[in-house]
Amino acid sequence: MAKSYFSDLVFKRIESLENGDYENCRFVNCILPNCDLSGINFIECEFENCDFSTSKLYDTSFKTASFAKSKLVGLRFEDCNEFLFSIDFQDCNLNLSSFYQVNPQNLSFENCNLKEVDFTEAVLNEVSFDNCDLDSAIFKNTNLEKADLRTSYNFLIDPETNNIKESKFLLQDLPGLLHKYNIHIE
Which superkingdom, per the lineage (predicted)? Predict the structure, then answer.
C-alpha cells in the first residue's frame, strides 16, 4: 500500500492523522494524544500548541521538526527513526518522556518542562537546555559534551558517570553536579 504524501499544508484542530509523509507542513492546535504515529515521516514540519502525549513513535521520522507550546508527555523518542533525527522544542511539556540512547543530529530545548525525562546513554553533544526544568531527569552514561545548561535548573548530573567535557554550567549549579557527595555549598 502506497503512503500518502502531503506538502506545504496547514492542519488545524485535527484529531486523527493519516499515515504518510508530511513535508513542510504546519500543525496547529491538533489534539492527538495516544495516537499511533508509527512510520510517519515529518520533514521540515512545525507543530504549535499540539498534544501528542503518550503517542506511539515507532519508526517515526522527525527530520528538522519543531514543536512550540506543545504537550508531549510520556513520549519514547528512542523509538523514532534516527536517520537525520533533528528536532527542537520551545515552551513544551515533555515530562516523563524518554530519549534513551538517542543520538540526534540536532536537538534543543527552550523553556521546557523536562521533569523525570530519561536521557540515559543519549548522545547530547552541543545540546542546549535553555531555561528548562530538569527536576528528577535521569542522566546516566549520557554524553553531554559541550552541552549548555547554564540557564536550566533542578538537575542532578554525576560527572563520574556522564561525559560533561566542555559543558557549560553556572557556579550556582555546583550542588546539582556534586549532590552525591552530600556536601553543603554556600
Answer: Bacteria
Summarize pLDDT for 91-115 with one digit per residue, the tens: 999 999 999 999 998 899 999 999 9
Reading the block at residue 114, the C-alpha cell is: 523536562
Rounded Cα–Cα distance for residues 22 and 99 (Å):
23
Please report which helix (H) or strand (E) contains residue 176, including its range. helix 174-178
Contact predicate 120/97, CB 8 Å:
no
Q: Which residues contact 109 (CB under 8 A, 6 or more apart)?
A: 88, 89, 92, 94, 127, 128, 129, 130, 132
Tell me how many degrees the CA angle 159-75-79 measures, rounded to the nearest 5.
85
For the CA atoms of 68, 70, 75, 79, the dihedral, rounded to the nearest 10 degrees, stands at -40
